Amino acid sequence: MNTLQANICLLAVTLCWSFEVIIHAVIPEGVNPFATTCVTSLIAALLLGGYFFKRIAIAIQSQRSLFLRRILLLSVLNAAYNVLYLEGLEYFDVSTGAFTASMTVVIIPVLLLAMRRDTSVRTWISAFIVLAGIVIAVIPSITEMHDVRGVGVMAAGCLVRAVFIVKLNDFAREHDPVTLSTGMLGLAALFAFIPWVCMEPATFFALPWNTELIAAYFVYAYFIVAFATVLNVYAQRRASAAHATVIYSTEIVFSTIWAAVLPSGIIDSVAITPPVVIGCLLVVLGNLVEIMQREPWKESKPAGDEVAAVMIRTSHPFATLLNRLKSRAMRNVLLFIGLVAIYLVIALPFKVLLVIPGFADIRPVCMLMPAYGIFFGIPGCLASATGNLICDALSDSLRWSSIAGFIGNFVYPFLLYLIWTKLRKEHFHLRTPYMIAMTVLSFAFCAIVLASIITPAVAHFYHEVDVVKFALTVIGNTLAFPTGLAIPFIILIQEELGYKPISRHHDVEVRLEEAGEK
Fold this sequence. Notes:
With 518 residues, the chain is an all-alpha fold. The protein is 73% helix and 0% strand.
């Protein structure tokens, strides 16, 4: 992962974090916040632990006592920050709270200076530009001593968060990021369970379990907790703590956008005043100053790699099972089944979860289609189409138009498979701005083709459907989620987890074997 890719991953992490308030709105009122933290962190830890358990076991054995002490320290700092952050939000609306929470951006360089660590002039300039944006946006909102106390709570939280980020940045360079992430999430679940059981001894039995709550918890665990945490730890191996914190400040911009455009039932509405607009623009400017480095796509080893810790070469059990099969056909069948299962795990919660009233068809599972086509070929394309069909059946959405949905969800990854693995001679990668731009354009082309396949079928069978709105929804889902989530996901699995795209010289079996050795 080079600097450019680390910036993209950090931005994706911030985007995922900004969704937190949206998912929280789906969770019924009265649900203990410690319950939400406990359950979602537990789900995320179990998912990561279940998939990477051999890797985690080897990593822990190599530096057991040191590793466990550091995990405990990070978890305590993170828990303390979350408590202060939630308490501070009681004083402000969403936008103002996001601005004050981003004061970490200037605390980090000061903390690094106190620790006698170098911070670039560029980072200092970026931090002060972002700080100027925070001040301009927040000052008009602070009219009473009540608000001043809120700023004090937020400042204390930002100081704790600054220490957490610096320590996480240090430890990410010395320990296996997957193991570090899983350990932090496991202890986060434990730390949340202790106050939860004190407040509600019935704990899990006290929750109003229904399909919406279960779906909300799994969506929260997938994207905001597991995916964002792993992506963040890997990206911090290629970025300084101060650099990462500047990019984290873009959560201000995302949160302000959601507060301005989403219904008030989801999130507290925010008036787009000149100070808020100027504040957001200064945050964006500060980020541009920080990330506009010379040749950020050139490879560079992260500091600490020479002592970094755990070099793990062990096959994942599923990859081992595939490689033991002598029949190519059987390998592809088993691969297909595994990919369908992953598709269903991610897609089904959104079939029962109404995230935005009046706009139910939110499909983050579209992030899998590029990876399925580029990395797994025909089995991946069939898994995408079959997974979509099964979701329609299980959610009582199976209609004649589902046939067009099956075809379209096969064609989208298949076109990417042809474009990036058969028509081009060079190996697929996302290491340069040119390749990233071309990849996004290929997503846009495939999204239009998919909409062209599905929309006529829906219009034919369901005359009451607004054809234009439906087509735009399809294009939006199949362009936005691949661009915002699939690109960092592909960077993660290709650059850090060792998965190889299909090429003229690498078939699925060879790539799975190589991935298992990482």
